[in-house]
Design a protein that fits this description.
The protein has three helices and eleven strands; from the N terminus they run E-E-H-E-E-E-H-E-E-E-E-E-H-E. The chain has helices at residues 20-35, 72-85, 133-142, and strands at residues 2-4, 8-15, 42-48, 56-61, 64-69, 88-90, 98-100, 105-107, 109-113, 121-124, 147-150. The strands form four sheets. The protein has a five-stranded mixed sheet, covered by helices on one side. The model has no long low-confidence stretch (mean pLDDT 87).
Length: 171
């Protein structure tokens, strides 16, 4: 049986620890699936290992999905992988960059993924991008980067249309 986003119960996303990353992964799954109109009965369980790597295993069965990361970050990567398989994509930073294509499905089975590179960095090399660093950080995480590098350059008139750099982090 293949599972679609609508088959999941956003109220049945659980994790096995008080780890903040697992809680965040559960919140991301809940938010996306709720936004896609999920109202089914399939449960999602999140678990984590103790390795320092970002790989994961997703086990899909008709009534439940188990995402087990090699680390908490691996579990978060597994959550985003599942959302991608169900039709979600993050094409640019911010809420407007989230896309959902209904109807995609995940077949029963076991899926494993381990990043080819231990370090996957998004570089913000333009001063104007720094203003939206929170959105870029979320975008990077959702696309399974594990680091964000803010390349600070002298302000340029090209960065903000001639406007100066904000005086605080809040703009």
């Amino acid at each position: 049986m293949a599972l679609r986003a609508s088959d999941f119960d956003p109220g049945q996303i659980v994790h096995d620890s008080d780890d903040g990353v697992l809680a965040f992964a559960a919140a991301e799954l809940r938010e996306h699936l709720t936004g896609a109109g999920a109202a089914g009965t399939v449960r999602i369980s999140l678990a984590t290992g103790t390795r320092a790597t970002d790989g994961f295993v997703v086990t899909a069965a008709p009534s439940a999905i188990v995402i087990t990361g090699e680390s908490p970050r691996g579990t978060l990567n597994g959550a985003y992988w599942l959302l991608e398989k169900l039709g979600f994509a993050w094409v640019r930073p911010g809420q407007a960059g989230t896309r959902f294509v209904p109807g995609l499905a995940l077949a029963d089975g076991e899926y494993r993924e381990r990043p080819s590179f231990p370090r996957r960095t998004l570089i913000l090399g333009n001063d104007a991008l720094h203003d939206d660093w929170r959105d870029w950080l979320e975008f990077a995480s959702r696309n399974r980067y594990n680091s964000l590098f803010v390349h600070d350059t002298p302000p340029s008139v090209l960065d903000r249309g001639g406007a100066s750099r904000p005086s605080t982090a809040e703009g």
